[in-house]
Design a protein that fits this description.
Strand content: 5-15%
CATH architecture of the largest domain: 3-Layer(aba) Sandwich
Distance between the termini: 64 Å
CATH class of the largest domain: Alpha Beta
Order of helices and strands: EHEHEHHEEHHHH
Structural class: alpha/beta
Number of strands: 5
Radius of gyration: 23 Å
Largest sheet: 5 strands, mixed
Shape: elongated
Strand order of the largest sheet: 2-1-3-4-5
Number of domains: 2
Length: 183
């Protein structure tokens, strides 16, 4: 009996459109969609998919960078899935992995994964350079403070009267760490 075809998609931000990925993946029996960064493999739908898939199933992913952002995570996921007897198809790269993956496919996976990781590091470097340049021009000010001076004064007063930090944090809608930083 042939296994199920399972789709996996990931969008990094709410603004990203998953239509392009959905079109590339095509028709599937079950679809898992994460709206999270690919920086970590600790994503709810990815973990759910890993539990759901069985021997003989095929997971279809639009592109390798949708499954993982770095080579170590990508190889670990591919190895974990193929060890379970699950096939993986990367549409954009036109690559299929099975439990009997060829050495050439493994080489291609490593090479393309390394390029994706390199590209990500270049993007981050350019972003840092852009922020630094904007700071020098006085354009980039960083994130707006979560508390104004009046709120900070009130927090200090509440702490002085013995109100628990957790209660203060809830009242102002900030983390306990933020409260600790201002006192």
């Amino acid at each position: 009996m042939p296994g199920k075809t399972i789709g996996y998609m990931r969008v990094s931000t709410l603004l990203q459109n998953e239509a392009r990925q959905k079109e590339g993946i095509g028709e599937v029996d079950k679809l898992f969609l994460d709206k999270a960064s690919g920086k970590s493999t600790d994503r709810p739908k990815l973990q759910e998919m890993l539990e759901y898939c069985r021997d003989g199933d095929t997971i279809v992913v639009h592109s390798m960078d949708r499954l993982a952002r770095n080579l170590v995570d990508l190889r670990k996921l591919v190895d974990t899935l193929t060890a379970k007897g699950v096939n993986i198809r990367f549409v954009k790269e036109n690559l299929d992995f099975t439990a009997q993956a060829s050495p050439m496919n493994k080489l291609i996976l490593s090479t393309l994964g390394a390029f994706a990781e390199f590209e990500r590091s270049i993007i981050l470097e350019r972003q840092r350079e852009g922020i630094e340049l904007a700071k020098q021009k006085g354009v980039y000010k960083g994130r707006k403070p979560s508390l104004n001076q009046e709120q900070i004064d009130e927090i200090k007063s509440l702490v002085a009267t013995g109100v628990p930090i957790a209660k203060i944090a809830r009242k102002f809608g900030v983390s306990r760490m933020t409260v600790y930083k201002v006192i």
